[in-house]
Amino acid sequence: MPNSTFTQSDSLFSVTAVEYELESIFQAPFFTESAILKKFLSFIVQETILGRSNCLKEYTIAIKVLDKPLNFNPQENGIVRIHAGRLRRALSRYYSEMGRNDQIVITIPKGKYVPLFANRSNPLDAALIDRELQEDSFIPDEEDNIVIAVLPFICSANVGLTKSFADGLCLQISSRLMRLHHTSVIAYQAIKNLVETQPDYKELGASVGFNYVITGGVQLARQKVRVNIQLIECASYKQVWSETFERNLSGLNVFEIEDELCQYAVDQVEELGDRKYSADKMLMHSHV
Predict the structure, then answer these.
(1) pTM, 2 dp
(2) Cα 90 to Cα 156: distance, rounded to the nearest angstrom
(3) For a tag on the chain, would you pick the N or C end, based on fewer CB atoms within 10 A?
(4) What residues does each domain of the chain span?
(5) What pLDDT was estimated at residue 279?
(6) Secondary structure letter of residue 3 according to DSSP
(7) Who contacts 105 (Cβ-Cβ below 8 Å, separation ≥6)?
(8) Which CATH class is domain 143-286?
(9) CB–CB of 247/224 below 8 Å?
């Protein structure tokens, strides 16, 4: 399988043929809508074509593709691995849909960043293709489910009662959402760490696998707390629901206020789930 040396005379894996395959891949909507995926794949393919695949390290990709600073530390920040996983799933989706008849197949082995170029017509390559794509298999049905993440609320002060109240509210919402049918929840503590490295929740949602977020802000002035809570669809940035609450806050009623606001948010997600479930049932019956 050619992977490090490319010449124009190579009938299948020529530079022109591989670049043409890239153009075909980038016609897929999930690549068209993501500048990061396109830049990531273009970079690792071009570096391989130019014989520099040995330079494809996590640090290099962070600097060249994700525009991270020179002091970027891969051990402390997993953003490259997140986008690499997202890219593998996108390639799997492309080759199971639009590119299912493409002769050249580009895959990225897990744990590595050097792309492999396989010939679908070659039986040995075909076995490798099947294994690679199955490991990163894309399941379209998951798009219809509600997968939600609670992002850390913006606080007027990052210490003291305000921060404690905001974190407690987020944890409570995340915990309560687990009880809903037709809804999956990304662990709050995991999202809390990841959102610092990837603030765009559309990109983060695509890489981690959630399609809705609950976010908001908390302000505290004397003994009065103002909380804004929003439910947002990641793909469109559409605000599905938003409400602002003002309550008198003291050390004695923190839990009661958290429970009250949490219930408001959970009710909105439950209503969204009911609407989607009812719409799916109606669509199903219409095809019977």
Answers:
(1) 0.53
(2) 38
(3) C
(4) 15-138, 143-286
(5) 52
(6) -
(7) 95, 99, 117, 118, 119, 120, 125, 129, 133
(8) alpha beta
(9) yes
